[in-house]
Amino acid sequence: MPSLKLPLHLQDKIFEIKYNSDDAISRIISYFPFSDSERQEIRSILADTVFNEFHSIFTDFVSDDEWNRTKDQIKKKFRGELFDIGKI
Questions:
Q1: Is pTM, for the whole model, over 0.70?
Q2: H-helix segments, the chain
């Protein structure tokens, strides 16, 4: 599976990238919705001006300051605690 090379400030906000059978990106799932400028930046990197399969876990928009303050807690919760629920 190919690896998408994104700047760290975008990589950090992504929960998962899904690929289709052709190894093309089919969906990008972030913790919170990307801003319009972030979406445009990703489209530019993908060289796909119409890509629009952006999804997010949460629907609230958060500022970069807010994200930087809470990202470690959110990532820990999603990578650890919430995915371990099925094992109980």
A1: yes
A2: 8-11, 36-46, 64-76
